[in-house]
Amino acid sequence: MTALRLEKVSAGYERDPVVRDVSVSVRGGGWLAVVGPNGAGKSTLLKAMAGLLPGAGRILVDGRPVHSLSRKEKARQLGYAPQDPVLPDGLTVTDYALLGRTPHLRPLAREGAADLSVVDEVLARLDLSALAGRRLGKLSGGERQRAVLARVLAQRAGLLLLDEPTTGLDLGHAQALLELIDRLRREDGTTVVSTLHDLTFAAQYADHVLLLSDGAVVASGTPAEVLTPQALQRHYGATADVLTATRGDLVVAPVRPV
Ligand SMILES: Nc1ncnc2c1ncn2[C@@H]1O[C@H](COP(=O)(O)OP(=O)(O)OP(=O)(O)O)[C@@H](O)[C@H]1O
Questions:
Q1: Which residues pair with 81 in a beta bridge?
Q2: pTM (global) more than 0.90
Q3: For the segment 34-65, what is each residue's pLDDT rounded down to a tens digit?
Q4: How many CB atoms neighbour CB 139 within 10 A?
Q5: Contact residues of ligand 1, CB 6 A cut-off
Q6: Which residue owns the Cα nearest ligand 1 atom 31?
Q7: Boundaries of each ABC transporter domain copy (predicted)?
């Protein structure tokens, strides 16, 4: 189980930090949803967690600073799926997902039957088996997004950093993906951090929600503590009800402003 801890993290691209003074802990097997309006700094924070940006403060993956991990150690511990990756369009879905197995191979070794079986299982669960031999350049937007996630899930890293994993997915595929991630979390103790615009999904899957606004943490706690109509009005300028569905799930429902 891989725990993640951020202590007063500031990070950005040029001189001024985009996110400032972020402190949060995610226990091994926990799920942190990073939410907030456009431009709040969610993707920037995820890139910082992945050790891809310079900055101040400490980012600890199982107690070790992320910047001290070697490339291979990082790839074994941490799987990062960016929001809009550039894909090698000529590769098939299977070959692309197999790249997720690279950190587990010995130097110069090729993927074996065990790696193929991990990939086959992930493709099946993401409803991609029928497209396994299709080149990435010939997939729809939602299929490409699922291929990106197939690669990162095939990596079987202890910590998943997923930037808007449900973007472009229809309701059924989005739900199946989140259920698969949740299963990895429950069965293997995988730790998850995801940015999510869909606040109902954030409320239903995460156990901790971090609300960013203008680069700063404005609320942090359980979904019910953070996702209140008042906070949504204040930080998103949105009018919404937070409802409880029949089985107790929270639902964030936009309503027409009066
Ligand atoms: N590569 C970059 N170089 C400089 N500034 C950037 C870069 N990427 C993002 N920014 C700026 O950093 C700020 C935060 O962007 P970020 O992508 O982290 O926001 P976000 O919360 O993920 O937004 P969205 O919900 O729109 O995806 C924005 O003002 C953005 O313009």
A1: 162
A2: yes
A3: 999 999 999 999 999 999 999 899 999 999 99
A4: 18
A5: 13, 18, 36, 38-44
A6: 39
A7: 4-239
What tens digit of pLDDT does each residue of 158-210 get? 999 999 999 888 999 899 889 989 988 998 899 999 999 999 999 999 999 99
* Residue 166 to residue 168: CA distance in whole angstroms: 6
Q: Return the CATH number of the domain spanning residue range 4-254.
A: 3.40.50.300
Give residue limits of the domains in the chain: 4-254
Rg (CA), the chain: 18
DSSP alpha helices (H): ranges in the chain?
42-49, 71-77, 93-98, 113-125, 141-154, 171-188, 199-205, 223-226, 229-236
The ipTM, to two decimals, is: 0.98
d(CA 120, CA 180): 14
Task: Give the ligand 1 atom nearest the CA of 46.
Answer: 18
Closest residue by Cα to atom 24, ligand 1, is 38
Q: Euclidean distance between the first and final Cα of the chain, in Å? A: 47
- Supply 192's token pair: 């998850």
Report how far ligand 1's centroid is from the alpha carbon of 47 (Å).
11
Ligand 1 atom showing the smallest separation from residue 195 Cα: 22
